[in-house]
């Protein structure tokens, strides 16, 4: 669930893997993590891909995690084959998409899109009484990266809504 100690561990592992793949890692005020692999033409708009690492009870092991790790695997594969893209590729982990602990969900992506005010998001109360903003700070993922720093030309999200069994 989002912004728990376990979520922090998952985020930390994702950041480590992204840095190992040569990405610059940035976090915005909603806790969204952007891992950016530079392109050869920095003036080009980026290709954004990803999903979310948080899940919900019985959501399945892959759920949104598949989209985040698939984006990272694209970057690793490009690196392994020495492919340099003209456009930067950014892999995103949206914060609190499922809303299992902090309702409503879609917090990170709505914030990025400009559809949710940060001051309102910071006051979202979790099922255990914790506040979104306090939890972001507690786990160390309250960043300052500006969504205006990315100019995506496309967004690709691989996502599996599977429940407890993937067929």
TrEMBL record:
Entry keywords, A to Z: Hydrolase
InterPro entries xref list: Amidase_Cbmase, Peptidase_M20
Pfam families assigned: Peptidase_M20 (PF01546)
Superkingdom assignment: Bacteria
Membrane-spanning intervals of the chain: none
Keyword check for Repressor: no
Name of this chain's protein: M20 family metallo-hydrolase
Source organism of this protein record: Paraburkholderia youngii
